[in-house]
Write a structure and sequence with these properties.
Blueprint (H helix, E strand, L loop, with lengths): L1 H11 L11 H7 L2 H15 L2 H27 L15 H10 L5 H30 L5 E2 L2 E2 L6
Antiparallel strand pairs: 1-2
Helix pairs in contact: 1-3, 1-4, 1-6, 3-4, 3-6, 4-6
Amino acid sequence: MLYALALYFQAATASLSNTYQPGIKLLQAVISPSGLLLLVFLVACLRKSYAAARVAMASSAGAILVSALMLAFIAGHGDSPKTWQPPGARSLSSTVQVALFQPSFSNRSIGSVVGNGFLALLVLGGSVYFSRRRRINPVQRTGPHGPSTDLDR
């Protein structure tokens, strides 16, 4: 769900720049769908477990589905009225509010969604690789008396 919200934010604000609204690029970097996906993948890599790799696989597969649905939504979305305001009349919060509730999607929005979908596909490939690797070679935990016997569970 967080990935879908972040992807919508990224698509709705893709055409905005710091020239138009100072601070928007920082906000776009903080609310990053690819950052969420990479965080899940990084945790799976650090945990070195089959279950964590499966969670990363499911997350990235869901992200691909969300990206495809968002692309269809953008393609079917009609043009919104232009809401340009002079620089003195806008604030970061009002700009974000207009972008989210009266979106004017552009080619940058499509590129953003396609780029995030491509990254999700790469993460899915990496997750499948780690999942297969962990299933074949499970991580052995060792204690003071040698390898642990709880790996069969």
